[in-house]
Amino acid sequence: MLARQLHDALAAAGHTVAVAESLTAGRLGAVLADAPGASRTFRGGVIAYATEVKASVLGVDRGLLAGRGAVDRDVARQMAEGVRRLMGATYGLATTGVAGPGTQDGREVGTLFVAVCGPRGTVVDAPHTDGDHDPGTIHRTAVTAALELLRDQLRPPDRDD
After folding, report:
1. CB-CB neighbours of 40 under 10 Å
2. Residue 120 half-sphere exposure toward CB, CA atoms < 13 A
3. Is the four-CA dihedral 2, 17, 77, 55 of positive or negative sign?
4. Any residues with CB less than 8 A from the CB of 146 and at least 6 apart, and which?
5. Which pLDDT tens digit goes with each residue over 43-58?
6. Residue 160 has what pLDDT?
């Protein structure tokens, strides 16, 4: 339902979206592609599961990846910016995080970062899984959070007139 609403809003504005996924490994793109109207606005995506792909394809800074690891707020930001540029989309969405079974780059299971890059800049969020370490729940949380972040960016900015 939300994905369809997003496609309708994107189409009405003449905008497009692309995704860069690590944690969600294609789940976000599948949700967007499965929604009616996807062919009008969904440009495609990159599944950058390997850290090297984040750098070589999406342009994430290698020093950042080496210093902080792939599960990081700034990595999510650069992934979103990179896929937007790579796909020529109005908006880029990105997901990175840890679904387990163990920690990654010193980050606990359930650590998530989602980002959206668009005409108004880049926004990153760190949604919570409420301590749930089920990989399915973590993936669903990341997909939903990314879609909601895009929805929030599609809304007109508040005005203090």
Report:
1. 13
2. 13
3. positive
4. 19, 24, 28, 93, 94, 95, 114, 116
5. 999 999 999 999 999 9
6. 58
Please state, in angstroms and rounded to a whole number, the distance separating the CA atoms of residues 76 and 60.
9
Q: What is the spatial order of strands in the sheet that 17-21 belongs to?
A: 42-47, 17-21, 91-97, 112-118, 121-125
Task: Name the token pair of 114.
Answer: 């989602």
Residues 6+ apart with CB under 8 A from 25: 47, 49, 139
On the CB side of 23, CA atoms within 13 Å amount to: 35
Question: What tokens appear for 80 in the block?
Answer: 């979103």
Contact 56, 50 (CB under 8 A): no
Q: Taking the CB of residue 131, how many other CB atoms lie within 10 A of it?
A: 8
Dig out the tokens for 23 from the structure.
Answer: 């944690």
Give the number of other CB atoms < 10 A from CB of residue 61. 14
pTM as predicted: 0.95
For residue 91, what are its two tokens?
């908006």
Instruction: Please list, in sequence order, all residues whose beta carbon lies within 8 angstroms of the beta carbon of residue 56, skipping any fewer than 6 positions away.
Output: none
Please name the residue that has the structure tokens 């669903």: 140
By CB neighbour count within 10 A (0-12 exposed, 13-18 middle, 19+ buried), where does 29 fall? buried
- Which residues, including other chains, have CB under 8 Å from residue 89's CB and lie 6 or more apart? 16, 17, 18, 43, 83
